[in-house]
Amino acid sequence: MQRRDHQLIEELLSASVLGALEPEEHAVLDREMAAHGPHCDECLELRRDYGEVAGRLAFALEPTALRPGFEDETVRLARGAPADTVVQIPSRKDHSRIWRGLGAVAAALVLFAGGWLARDLGGGGDSATAVLPSRVISFHGTGGNLSVAFEPGTPGLYLLGSDLPAPPSGKVYEVWMIQGGTPVRGACFRPSPNGSLFTFLNAELGTTQAMAVTVEPSSCSSAPTSEPILTASITQA
Amino acid sequence: MATDLSEVHDRELLTRIRTGDEEAFRGLFRRYAPNAMALARRVVRQPFLAEEIVQEAFLALWRNPTAYDQERGSVRSWLLGTVHHRAVDAVRREESQRRRAEGAVSAEASEPDFSETVAVELDAPEERRAVRTALEELPPEQREVIELMYFEGLSQSTIAERLSLPLGTVKSRTLLGMRRLRAALIGMER
Q1: Which residue of A has its CA nearest to B176?
Q2: Residue extents of the structural domains in chain A
């Protein structure tokens, strides 16, 4: 029986696991593997070993800590629930203080949050731990309802939205913080299918005078490439 | 060996995930999502896109845990290989080096870095040391092409163009480098 040469398979496999083959080279690899048959021990060993090497290369990098809530969000999606984060409702005694601070702009928030707010209050909100931010500012424009909620002097802010149209295919919304007249990247987001949004942004408003939302390519942009569809004045609020 | 114990634990988690065990899913997520995120961010250079890639990879695992075939290697390599594959696909789809370069600068400037506070229960420092050592011991020209492929998501032909090298040279450097990594990372366990 003729001994098969594994040089070409090894060459292609070792590049394939690094993601470095062109489509036509993948086809050659598939053809060669097929020619060797499904029980080619050396082929299987090469595939396993080089796959293992590629997987291990990821450990050369320092791990990146995940943003708060990312794990829960992923688990919720795994369960088949919508991706939107459910706000933790503070204890009853905090409600009046919090809602007093919201003013008229809270209406949009209440509309968005009403469903689970009623549910959680009815079910005993004392078990919850977080406190809602004391300031909520609405965006103005033509792209649905969006508000930003934050606690002055505390890092992090929430974006809350409703009736947000889905961005065009291959596009996302990107939120910008205007500081000294320059837009600083905030985050990219897509609303849920029903047009709602609740997401945490790990950013500091700092000297932000205004915020804006533009439609950008799904890879996100480093600078706005379109006119804002929503804007909010932060300093005058 | 710590790595073997780690793999035993991973397979146990995967077995439980097959029964719909959410805690097991969280367990695997906590072990590998920080590494997966580092890898995805390195390749796509866009934190938002990287999150999407990592999330999709773990959701795919949850929905179809039987996709893992232990004959093809460890759980962690399979999982991170999946993330890498998705990240490279995303880079190829976007096909815009200019945007990536701009995004990289901006992302580094504006995205919070939690790496100081991350806690990884895996015996990752040992693993990291082994992988970094193996990479450092490669001849520079071999390391360069492997890093461009793996961490930048470039194809061999793109690297040949970028480095003004014959494609055959890039291919031979890749093969020689990968053989050395195989010997260093896999050979030592046998």
Answers
A1: A11
A2: 7-60, 85-233
Model confidence pLDDT, tens digit, residues A79-118: 875 444 333 333 333 333 333 333 333 444 444 444 333 3
Q: Do A15 and B174 touch (CB under 8 A)?
A: yes
Q: Identify which of B77, B81, B76 has the alpha carbon closest to the alpha carbon of residue A52.
A: B77
The pTM of this model reads: 0.61
Which residues does residue A174 pair with via DSSP β-bridges, in sequence order? Answer: A188, A214
DSSP symbols for B9-41: HHHHHHHHHTTT-HHHHHHHHHHHHHHHHHHHH
Number of independent structural domains in chain B: 2
Q: B57 and B130 share a domain? A: no
B132 and B58 share one domain: no
Domain stop point among B106, B122, B138: B122
Residues B144 and B54 in one domain: no
ipTM score over 0.85, yes or no: no
Give B109-159 pLDDT, tens digit per residue.
344 333 333 334 445 678 888 999 999 999 999 999 999 999 999 999 999
Range of the domain at B90: 1-122
Q: How far is B5 from chain A (nearest CA, A)?
A: 16
